[in-house]
Structure formats: structure tokens, C-alpha cells
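Q: My labmate handed me this sequence with no annotations at all. I'd like to see what the chain might look like in three dimensions before we decide whether it's worth expressing. Could you predict it?
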Amino acid sequence: MTERDAEKQSAASMKGVGGLLDATFGNATEMLISIYALKNGMIRVVQQSLLGSILSNMLLVLGSAFFTGGIIHRQKVQRFNKEAALVNSGLLLMAVMGILFPAVLHSTHTEVHFGKSELSLSRFSSCIMLVAYASYLFFQLWSQHNFHGSVDAGPVGEESNSIAKDSAEEVSPDITQWEAIGWLAILTLWMSVLSGYLVDAIQGASESWNMPVSFISVILLPVMGNAAEHASAIMFAMKDKLVSA
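A: Here is what I predict for the chain of 245 residues:
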């Protein structure tokens, strides 16, 4: 239901906004799981789940979206917004650097104040990443809200035909914009309740299934936590909406 609500919100407003809302609320499950795991002292599980989430998004979801979109639309070339991809790549690079710098400081033992410099740098990096994400939200929703609407579609005639076709395919949404956001919020709160039970069951599942906790953290948790986001990306790609995917 989450992916359907996100798709309706995308059709009601902008393609990029729907994809952004789906990514934000879709990742809320993973964030809640991480919070519960941190409260229980399972720091290693949080680290491994974050790594698994990056791998699943960059490999599994992206590959599945390209594959299914290519199969459905094999008679045409699917296009995406190059500028939007550059912005997202820049944010991803910033996140990698924010994680890498404290790790380098820890491994090289070059701290000025042992134990304090690494912690201060980690907190500073986290604040920078939060500010960068908030700036990205402002940029996409208010400052340049049409930034994701234009796609470099080659010749002018081809681009005009693509826009006309997209306009013809758009239908009025079944629910309003705020209703879609409300349903997304309600489902996210419900998933937060289930996240607590999921974290408590990790150790027991590892023992009963004879499966290492690292496999559950790297593979199963990211896939289950981001299932709605994964499904939405594939559905958008099948409908030739790579900007939303």
C-alpha cells in the first residue's frame, strides 16, 4: 500500500516529489530498526544493516529497475534526468566521505586528543549530512521544484512527444495529496511498532535458523526494511517513470 500511495502522490504533484516522499518514508522503517537496535546495544547490527542497505539499493534495486524497465519498454530507450543523477551522486559521495573520515582517523591513530577527536568528527559529519539532506529537500520541493521534471530526451520532437504522452497517461488521483501523506505517516508509525519486535527476534532467529547474525543484518534486514521502496522503484521503472524511480 505504501508504494501505491507514493505513486498517487507523484501523479498528483511532481514526479520527483513522489519519489522523494517514497524514499523518505520507505527508509523510515530502516531508521526505526536502527534506533531500536542501538537502544539494545546492537551497534554491529546497525553497521551491517546500513552496509546491506547501500548494497541492496545500488545493486539489487537499481539492477531490478533497469531490468524490468528494459523488458517492458524494450522498443524504446528509457531516459532519466542527468542533472538530478549528478545531484544524487554528489550527496552519496558526501555521505561516503562523512563515514570514511572518522574511520581513517581511527585506523591511522593520528588523533590529537585520543578518543575525543574521532567522536567529534563523527558528530560533525552527521550534522553536515543532516543539513545537506534538509537543503536537498528545500531545493527539490520549493527552490527548484521543476528540477526533476525535465528529462534530456534527445531531439526536440521526441521530447515533445514524450511529454505529451506522459500528460495523456496521467489520471486524477484517487486520494488527495495530504491523504496520501497521512497514509504514509500512519503506515510508518505502524511499522515502527513492528520494528521493535523484529529487533528482539534477531538473536532468536539466528539460533533457530542456524544462520549468522551478520547474514541477517546485511541481507535480510535491508531487503525487508526497504521492501516498499524496492517495489516502488521497480513499479515506476515498469511505467517508464525513471525520475520517480
